[in-house]
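Table S2 (text version). Query chain:
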Amino acid sequence: MKILISNDDGIFAPGILAAKQAVEDLADVYVVAPDKNNSSVGRRISLFKHLKINSCELEDGSQGYSISGSPADCVIAGMDYIMDEKPDLVITGINAGVNISCDITSSGTVCAAFEAVSLGIPAIAVSLFMDPETSYKQDENGEWYLDFDFTLAKKVLHELVLKIINKGFPEGVDLFNLNVPSNYASQDVKITHLSHKMLDKKVIDNTTKEKEDLFNYPLEENQDSDDLIMITSNLITDYEKGSDGYALLIDKQPSLTPLNVNMTCRDLKDW
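Corresponding structure-token output:
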């Protein structure tokens, strides 16, 4: 079995190495990812633009490839240029953050998995929800840092890929969207559906006093804040039972959402 792994956080993000470690005993693994962070770019593809490709050494000493493009670009380049034959499975992640609800269409992680499906390869998108209460820690100098604990995410991903090897994908399922909480109450995986939305979005400017620090950092040199706006967001907290948001954020257990990329609604006979 051959697996292509990509992400939207960048080739040297800790999550992509965690994904590799989770499945490298099950398959031949290839890692191809953007050369820098590409979060929230959706399924952007750099058609007819030159892209820089570099071979690089990952933290474990293995070889990876960086592309000066989007996550979807990396999936295409990985399949059609770097690998000598198409993979059997594409894994995107492990994303540091949450990817749930109908908002997944803005996610570089999930849309890279969509791109794989469009190329005929089933996929898994994986994200680790970094709980603010436990993931942000201070070092001995009082500096804040993110504590990436991928232990449960790696375990669930390994078990999911093993099941796919043994049983294949369920009929009608093109990809799985897996979200794992860092601060979990249960390790049991819940099969879920997409929530209505994940984020409340708001536009602010330099008159928005309650978010003044956010708006003013960082300003580019010689940039005047009077003609600037910023789109901000807050994670919503109200989710319906059975949804990915409810499992992940309310029950604090891994959420596995089976998806089909054909978004056609066929039943209009009573319209």
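Notes on Table S2: The CA atoms of residues 48 and 73 lie 11 Å apart. The radius of gyration is 19 Å.
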